[in-house]
Amino acid sequence: MFSNSADSGGSEARNPHWQSEGCRFKSRKCQIGTLLCWGDMIQVKRRSTLVCPTSGCLWPKLSDGTVSVPYVISDAYSADEAEVILHAMREFHTLTCVRFVSRRSEKDFVQINSNDGCWSSVGRLGGAQELSLAKDGCLIHGVVQHELNHVLGFIHEQCRPDRDNYIKINWQYVNPEDAMNFAKSDLSPLNLPYDYTSIMHYGRYAYSNTTGEAVIVPLVNSTNLLGQRYGMSPIDVHRVNTVYSCREYACEKVPHTTSMVPSFICSGHYQVDGTFL
Ligand SMILES: [Zn+2]
Predict the structure, then answer these.
(1) pLDDT on residue 110
(2) Which of 167, 182, 213 has its CA nearest to residue 9?
(3) What pLDDT shows up at residue 10?
(4) Residue 147 among the catalytic residues
(5) 87, 154, 199, 212: most buried, per Cβ within 10 A?
(6) 156 labelled as ligand-binding?
(7) What separation, in Å, do the N-terminal and C-terminal C-alpha atoms of the chain show?
């Protein structure tokens, strides 16, 4: 089951899973232009709208049906630190057709550095693109997977265009300079259920300017826990398999090993803790 540690406490600063998410480090990457619900994502100037994954930002499929994402891991990481990243990647290999592969000579690749916080571009940019996973705070399984989902082209769950049916944003607890982190996108939610347990969902205290006051409040069930960073939810996995047409996984019962609840995916239906969605 969920641990309260993922979604409790008066502020995100008290939650280790959130310490390095978003613009905590106030890097220049977080201050570029018109950030909309981006937080830890880099807005690329040549993309004027948030159109990934429909603008060619997906990673290419190979003839064997897998999707190859070449990477280079900075040698600034120790072997143990690099293993956290590699372990997070391997779970994609188990649950989806995405394959993170050590770069040989590929033109497009992800350079993983311990920079100023946890952030990524959204989708494939072309050429080298940086993914920052700071050694101090980002080497957490779910945080790494969150950023890898950005690399694959996915944005935050609470930015879905239909999010107001599921959550309430308490704007009074958001500073104006942080409001961009809660703007809605026009990206299709792909007919997937709203997922409070998504690894791409912010915690309820993210960017709160008032200790103990939640910014994000679930409408459907006020006790829903938000902002887990243990691992991808079943719907997170299905989103990857849907967008990347991982057909070989479409009707294969796959145990979801890192979730707090045992679950399986088959034919686009979700069986989560006994509930059929
Ligand atoms: Zn993010």
Answers:
(1) 97
(2) 213
(3) 25
(4) yes
(5) 199
(6) yes
(7) 19
